[in-house]
Known about the structure:
The chain is mainly α. It has helices at about 1-25, 35-40, 45-70, 70-100, 110-120, 125-150, 155-180. About 80% of the residues lie in helices and about 0% in strands. Helix 3 (about 45-70) runs antiparallel to helix 6 and helix 4 (about 70-100) packs antiparallel against helix 7. InterPro entries: DUF4142, Ferritin-like.
Amino acid sequence: MIRSISLAAATALGLCSTAMAQQTAPIxxxxxxxxxxxxxxxxxxxFVKQAAATNEFExxxxxxxxxxxxxxxxxxxxxxMLDDYKRAxxxxxxxxEADSIALVLDLSMEQKQTLTALEQAEESQxxxxxxxxxxxxxxxxxxxxxxxxxxxxxxxxKTYAIANYPLVRMHKVRAQxxxxx
Length: 181
C-alpha cells in the first residue's frame, strides 16, 4: 500500500516537473520560421546592421501608416509598432555600444522598395499593403532574432535578441489578426 502511494506520488511529481519545465522553456525553443544558414552565421556587426535596418523600417512604415491609413485598427497597430520599435532601436544602440559594435543604419534595397511602394499605394490599397509588409517584416525579424538568440555569442546583443524575440512574435500575431479579421 505504501509502495503504491509512493509510486503515485512519484508519478505525480514527475508530471508536475514536466509541466513546469514546459512552461518555463527558453525562448529559443519556441517554434520559429526556418532560420537560414546565412542568418545562423551572422556575426555581431552584421546582426546589428540587420536589426537596426529592421527597426528603422518598422519606424518609417509605421509613421507612413499613421499619415495614410483611414482604418483606426491599422492606425492603432502602427502606433504600437512605432513605440515598440523606437524603444527597440534605443535598446539595440545600447547593446551595440556595450559589445563595442558600431551601429550602421542602412535599409536594405528590399526595405527601401517596400517603403516606396507603400508611399505610392492607392489610398484604397494602402492598409492591405501595409499589413502585408508587416507580416513579411515580422517573419524576417523572427528569423533574425531567433537565430542570434540561439547562435550568437554571449553578450548584450544576444540579450537584446532574446528580450525582443517575444515582442516580434506578438507583432506577427497582431498583424495576422488585422489581415484576417
